[in-house]
Structure formats: C-alpha cells, structure tokens
C-alpha cells in the first residue's frame, strides 16, 4: 500500500517535471536551419615588431623534439577577406594551438573565430580539433558558435597559402562549412 502511494507521488512529480520542461520549450529561440560556407585567410605572425602569437609554454625535456612536442602557443591572428594582410579584416582567430604529436607536426587547435565584419559582426565559431600542418589540407571540426552561428556544427578546411621558412610566418586559407540556426 505504502509503495503504491510512493509510486503515485513519484509519478506526480515526474508529471510536474515534464510539464515544466514542456512549458519551457516555446521560450527557446531557434531560427531556421541554415548552411553557410565562409572563406577567409588567417595570418599567423611569429616574429617581427608585431607578432600575433606568443609561446606560453614549452616542454621541459633534455632532448629537443623535432616537432616541438608540448609547445603551447596563444594566438590572436587577423582573418582577412583576401590573401593579402592589407585585405579587409573580417575577424580574428583567438585561442590556443599546441604541438600534440611526437612524430610529425600536428597541432591541437582550440580556437574561436570572432567575426567583426558585416552580417556576422559579433558572431563567433568555435574550432576544436587536430591540424596536420603538412598534410596538404587540414580538417578541423567546428563544435559550436554564437550569434548568427548558434548551435553551429561543421568543419573547417585549412590550406597553407604562403609560408616563410625563416620566420615561420604563415597565411592559411580557411574554408568553413557550417550548419547553424
Ligand atoms: C560591429 O559591432 C560593433 C559593436 O556592436 C560596432 O561597434 C562596430 O561598428 C561594428 N562593425 C561593423 C563593421 O559593422
């Protein structure tokens, strides 16, 4: 008898809970699903008078790693419409990349693309994944976004457009494909 009552009470609370959840549903703003392809160029500047990157950690090893394994870099790289650094600024790539492979140059990327231009001004995309720098085209997952890119999911293809062997500076073409709301 007592267990029946207890079950009844439990069911009642479950009902209350589901009612509360259901009531919340229509207050959740969710636009139409959209598909967007963005193309821009990232400028990663390691040296010179105005570097856009900063080495924030290096591995404490006795033998030097050929892949700089363990090195963590913080970046605030400009994103431009065209490949020239003087081209129109569309956003900034702000975040971390780290050498995550002992055998080849492969990066762990944890970046936010913060857009400043036009209709995407104030919106951002979050990138989290592996970037095999010398594998031709690197592919990284887009794991989320904000503003115009709410609930974003997709992928980013990175291709080195130009790189300077001496300074290490690089211009990388990004093609980003996202589904968002
Ligand atoms: C982007 O948004 C900021 C803040 O709302 C504003 O100050 C700025 O003028 C905008 N830039 C462009 C290019 O629309």
From TrEMBL:
Gene Ontology BP, a term: phenylpropanoid biosynthetic process
Biological role stated in the UniProt entry: Dirigent proteins impart stereoselectivity on the phenoxy radical-coupling reaction, yielding optically active lignans from two molecules of coniferyl alcohol in the biosynthesis of lignans, flavonolignans, and alkaloids and thus plays a central role in plant secondary metabolism.
Subunit: Homodimer.
Pfam families recorded: Dirigent (PF03018)
Name this protein carries in UniProt: Dirigent protein
Any one Gene Ontology cellular component term annotated for this protein: apoplast
Location, primary (coarse class): secreted
UniProt keyword terms in alphabetical order: Apoplast, Secreted, Signal
Record's signal peptide: 1-22
Localisation per UniProt entry: Secreted, Extracellular space, Apoplast
Membership in a protein family: Belongs to the plant dirigent protein family.
Superkingdom field: Eukaryota
């Amino acid at each position: 008898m007592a267990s029946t009552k207890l079950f009844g009470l439990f069911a009642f609370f479950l009902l209350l809970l589901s009612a509360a959840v259901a009531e919340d549903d229509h207050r959740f703003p969710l636009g139409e699903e959209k598909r967007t392809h963005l193309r821009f160029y990232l400028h990663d500047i390691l040296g010179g008078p105005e570097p856009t990157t900063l080495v924030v950690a290096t591995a404490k090893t006795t033998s030097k790693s050929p892949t700089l394994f363990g090195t963590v870099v913080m970046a605030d790289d400009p994103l431009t419409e065209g490949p020239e650094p003087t081209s129109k600024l569309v956003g900034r790539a702000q975040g971390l990349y780290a050498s995550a492979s002992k055998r080849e140059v492969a990066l762990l990327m944890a970046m936010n693309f913060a857009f400043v231009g036009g209709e995407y001004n104030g919106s951002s995309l979050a990138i989290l994944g592996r970037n095999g720098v010398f594998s031709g085209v690197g592919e990284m997952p887009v794991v989320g976004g904000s503003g115009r890119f709410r609930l974003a999911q997709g992928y980013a293809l990175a291709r080195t457009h130009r790189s300077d062997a001496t300074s290490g500076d690089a211009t990388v073409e990004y093609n980003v494909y996202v589904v968002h709301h």
